[in-house]
Automatic annotation (TrEMBL):
GO BP terms, alphabetized: protein folding
Entries under Pfam families matching the protein: GrpE
Natural source organism: Thermomonospora curvata (strain ATCC 19995 / DSM 43183 / JCM 3096 / KCTC 9072 / NBRC 15933 / NCIMB 10081 / Henssen B9)
Biased composition (Basic and acidic residues): 33-42
Molecular functions (GO terms): adenyl-nucleotide exchange factor activity; protein homodimerization activity; protein-folding chaperone binding
Name of the protein in its database record: Nucleotide exchange factor GrpE
Length: 232
């Protein structure tokens, strides 16, 4: 009985000691301990360097594909340009051949005409008037060939006023008629024009008035002069 009472008395003491211990902790005047952050596992993100390499590889592949497409376009353009150049050259040669065809036709006729007349003249020389007619025919044939290429012949006549835009003077002749001064006296060659533009001027001789004869005694005699000094 005494043993149980003794234990019962000791129990409150222990409880009181625990309470005091708890009160002592709560009432401590020292600084509070800093709170420790909760322990967490590090965030496991994707490997950044690997992503950068993949992105660069994809970008390089895209640029390489774009460059290849540009090379293909450039090659296609070069092929088109070469083909167009070949077509233009073919058309140009065809146009030139078409342009030369009427000239060839006239030259064929001139060749046959001159060869035939040469054989005939070898056996029977013609009179001068016949030769002049033949040469005039040849000149007309050539003018016709030039006309088919767009170049027209124009002629000058004696007495026409001299036109520097259409005439080229090759000589000057003295004329007594004042009306022929500065006019065409004779024609050396015809002129040619294309679309109202002179491509070759007609060669002509121009008339001029006679110059005073320097051997005339009246002109060569010395003029009388006064022996009186100047200023008197």
């Amino acid at each position: 009985m005494l043993l149980h009472v003794s234990r019962a008395q000791d129990l409150p003491s222990a409880s009181s000691a625990e309470a005091r211990s708890a009160d002592g902790r709560d009432g401590a005047t020292g600084p509070p301990e800093p709170e420790r952050p909760p322990h967490t596992e590090p965030h496991a993100g994707p490997p950044q360097p690997a992503l950068d390499i993949d992105r660069l590889t994809a970008e390089l592949a895209r640029l390489a594909a774009a460059l290849e497409r540009e090379h293909e376009r450039a090659a296609h353009r070069e092929a088109v340009i070469d083909r167009l150049h070949a077509d233009v050259q073919t058309l140009r040669r065809g146009e030139l051949q078409t342009l030369f065809e009427p000239v060839r036709a006239v030259l064929y006729r001139l060749h046959d005409l001159t060869r035939r007349e040469a054989r005939r003249w070898a056996d029977d020389p013609p009179e001068p008037r016949h030769a002049a007619a033949l040469l005039a025919t040849v000149a007309d044939e050539i003018a016709e060939a030039l006309a088919r290429t767009g170049v027209e012949r124009f002629t000058a006549r004696p007495g026409d006023p001299f036109d520097p835009a259409r005439h080229r003077p090759v000589a000057v002749e003295t004329v007594e008629d004042p009306a022929l001064e500065g006019a065409v006296i004779s024609v050396c060659s015809d002129g040619f024009e294309r679309a109202d533009r002179v491509v070759r001027k007609a060669e002509v001789r121009i008339g001029r008035p006679p110059t005073p004869d320097r051997d005339d005694p009246a002109d060569s005699a010395p003029h009388p002069r006064s022996d009186r000094p100047t200023g008197e």
